[in-house]
Design goal:
Layout: H1 2-25, H2 29-54, H3 62-78, H4 84-105, H5 111-131, H6 133-136, H7 155-177, H8 180-190, H9 192-197, H10 202-228, H11 238-251, H12 256-279, H13 287-302, H14 307-336
Helix pairs in contact: 1-7, 2-7, 2-10, 2-11, 2-12, 3-4, 3-5, 3-10, 4-10, 11-12, 11-13
Length: 337
């Protein structure tokens, strides 16, 4: 943690300050709800970043784990009368178990085959939610999902609860990234053959990343269910998986901060499209999917490393030029003396 504070102290300070003051700068309930949804998406995106950026796996079914977590907590609290706390614990465990099973099944797949397998899993989960009507409510969904009793369950308290969890997930992921396990993940991402030759159990580390990612998505899904109070299968399909993928790619697949920044960028773009659709009715529907797909293609073509690594690279180059200029000035002063 000391190394983490030294490396990311300023970034963490700015993040915490912005997170704390946002509800007071934007006191409107609508913008607070937008902040809550962005926080929930950030938890999923950070988990996906661990899978894609560190373990080098492509996942097109992240929304399925989100949905499993949401419906797990919703079913336990509405059908069986358990408390939301128990439901949230289960919403972390059940998707992690599904991720473990799926991870073991697809451990030998790579590239397009891996992407197609996760895509197929996403479709299976969405169809299962729709067809298992006695439990999930099918296409009609579920209602009367109890709120999390956190300081009364107000919009402001939910905002701080969710962003508090985002902060915990962020710190855990940053610490993991700079640990021995994180170094193993980065070695796998660069070259599985080289990592194997160094004695790293590639399959084990990939599976661990997949399980942690599924757990994060499940926690977010459980919180989403209790925040919304209602559920239907629509948010847990391919559209949302593409959205999560776009968040990670925009921010930078190898950067945990990138996943958070990418979530904020996509969140603001989504809200902009919603506001624009009120003025231009023709933009209603699945236009956001086209926009996100276009952004994804452009980022891959022109800035494959993502926003945060690109900004960091430009900053380091500027600092190097500044240091070189200062050194040159010192040499000139000495020569003048």
């Amino acid at each position: 943690m000391k190394q983490l504070t030294k490396k990311w102290g300023k970034s963490l300070g700015i993040y915490l300050a912005l997170m704390i003051i946002f509800p007071f700068v934007m006191p409107d309930e609508y913008y607070r709800s937008v902040g809550i949804i962005i926080g929930l998406q950030a938890i999923v995106a950070i988990g996906l970043c661990l899978v894609m950026g560190l373990a080098g796996q492509i996942s097109l079914g992240q929304a399925s784990f989100w949905g499993i977590g949401a419906y797990t907590s919703a079913v336990l609290t509405t059908k069986f009368g358990l408390t939301p706390l128990v439901g949230l614990v289960a919403s972390a465990i059940v998707p992690a178990v599904f991720a473990f099973i799926l991870g073991r099944a697809i451990a030998g797949l790579q590239g397009y085959y891996l992407a197609m397998a996760t895509l197929a899993f996403g479709y299976i989960v969405q169809i299962g939610i729709q067809e298992w009507e006695p439990v999930t409510g099918g296409a009609s969904g579920m209602i009367s999902i109890p709120q999390v009793p956190f300081f009364g369950g107000s919009e402001l308290s939910m905002y701080y609860l969710i962003w508090g969890i985002v902060t915990c997930v962020l710190l855990f992921s940053l610490n993991l990234m700079h640990s021995r396990i994180g170094r193993a993940f980065r070695a796998i991402h660069k070259s599985e053959v080289a990592a194997t030759s160094m004695g790293i159990d590639v399959r084990k580390f990939k599976l661990n990343a997949f399980v942690v990612s599924g757990m994060f998505a499940g926690i977010s899904g459980g919180l989403y269910a209790h925040y919304m109070g209602i559920l239907d299968p629509q948010p847990f399909g391919m559209h949302e998986s593409i959205k999560f993928l776009t968040m990670v790619v925009i921010g930078g697949m190898t950067s945990i901060w990138g996943a958070l920044i990418g979530t904020l960028v996509i969140g603001f773009i989504s809200e902009g499209l919603v506001m624009l659709s009120e003025v231009v009715p023709g933009l209603q529907g699945d236009v956001d999917t086209i926009v996100f797909g276009g952004i994804l293609v452009l980022i891959v073509m022109f800035m494959p490393e993502g926003l945060v690594p690109r900004i960091r690279s430009l900053y380091e180059k500027a600092q190097a030029k500044k240091a070189a200029a200062n050194a040159e000035q010192r040499v000139e002063r000495k020569a003048a003396i």
